[in-house]
Amino acid sequence: MADVALQPNRVGAAQPARKRSSLQKALKRKSTAAFLMTLPLIILITLLVLYPAFYSLHLATLNKSMQRFVGLGNFEFLFKRDTFWLVVKQSCIFAITAVLFKALIGFIVAHFVHNIPAKGQRKWRGMLLVPWVIPPAMSTLAWLWLFDPSYSAFNYTLSFFGIGPIPWTGDAAWARFSVILVNVWYGAPFFMIMYLASLKSVPDQLYEAAAIDGANWWQRIWYVTLPMMRNIIAITTLFSLIVTFANFDIVRILTAGGPLDHTHIFATWAFRIGIEGSDIPLGASVSLFMVPILAIAAIFILRDVNKRGNEA
Amino acid sequence: MSSVTIDKAAPTRTVKYGSMSRDRKWALRWSYFFLTLFAIFSLLPPIYMLITSLKSSAEISAATNPWWVFHPTLENYVGLLTSNQFLRFFWNSALVSIFVVTITMLISVPAAFALARMRFWGSATLATGVFLTYLIPDSLLFIPLFKVFALFGDWTGIQLINRWYVLLFIYPTLTVPFCTWIMIGYFASIPKELDEAAIIDGASWFQTLTRIFIPVALPGLIAATIFAFTVSWAQFLYPLVFTTSTDQLVLPVGIITTLIKGDVFNWGQIMTGALLGAAPPLIIYAFLMDYYIAGLTAGATKG
Predict the structure, then answer these.
(1) Using CB atoms, which residue from A132, A137, A150 is nearest to B256?
(2) Considering only the top CATH level, what class is A73-308?
(3) Distance (Å, rounded) from C-alpha B20 to C-alpha B22?
């Protein structure tokens, strides 16, 4: 197609070819034009994503004043600190639990929305997606106020049921729960929307056939819905795993890592050390620990997305 | 009596055969019940923001029923909207978001066109690379980026850190990869016959892009624009790292650093600020929900 398309251009350029410089001719070529169109993108990615990414590898090998090469000294130092292992543990608990609940709630809510008549679906979908639209920093402030130690609206409500004041952000276990709860609240709508879109693409005939064969609701989900949605579930979960693992806003605003570092995850701890504690190399080393998990998730996503592209 | 028994038997028969419709009715009721529960859960924080924003500080500290406003007042809104500092945050946020959206579109639309239609050496690799860049989170890059910009300031004497416009360089690293990715999807779905016809009629590549591709892929373009705006409006980590002076802050960071003074939380104003900060994306969402959802689902599903 491209060759055909280029014929008129080439003919047009051929007549006054003597006059035109080779530069202009090169500009007429398709690959040159395409390269120029992608050049800003390439520059942006190289300078502001790839370069900093590799630069952080270099940073991680320097001492605090960034004048001396210490090799793997920063990592050795981290491995010896209990706080580091606490952060690793908490990051994994946080990401896995939050993603699991987001996926589960998203799946259930998507089914409920799919169940009701199509006319009303828009309205419900609109309401249920609101958490995803509000900037997380703003909505976390509302949660912080709902969790306030002395004026908590939740504790006020619970006191009517005789449940004592809960230290939402004061106690380590409750603080972890609160952070995960806010993350689930924020992230579940994304799953709901993705699952709803893929539920709608499952052909009705499959359910009719299953109903004729006498399948109950559980069998319909297990043998029809889940296999049809498998790809979307995988991609969405992996996506969310990356985003949740790298989360910063919610933990930072809600607990700032406290009480006693018991809610710190990689991003907030790296911020605490690297920016607030101005030990940039150590902070860079901490955030580098996110790379392996992100890389594994990215490889699987890429495989699934490509598979999807080939099927289409 | 016998007639009664017949009456009783009749429903059982219909139930047996018409059970599907009865099941459906119950399923529907349960669906509405749980949807209401989930909707309350979803809307609780924004509603609570609104309730608190209408209260005076005296009413908040009196610890009356937190779910009800006894003496509604607009003093928090008046206080914030007449404070130069808050308006400055709003203005900075708006400026950053508008510039970032423009820069993003100028970079990603031509790039997506080239990657979707003009196959050249390395184009497939580049498309994959764009997608991988989208997966790199901000919390991985903020420390090296901070150092890179600090070094840049040392070398050239151009100080970018602690200026709001430094965000114009940084935010595109979040928005451009995603927007390019979904635009590739939208452009690839346009039938080849359209651009072949345009080129046979003598259109240049640039004309094909502006006259054919952009109008046809307009829904995708709107979805990408909304995404870029939402991301740059909501971004919290980068402005927290890169800007510190109060006149350079954007809205989310501004609210958190200036309205929370030490241990004193002026909750009425904080909630008002948060609500005003959440308003622009919410308003866009209310009017353009379908584009918003299209952008959301396109990200993971290739167009």
Answers:
(1) A137
(2) mainly alpha
(3) 5
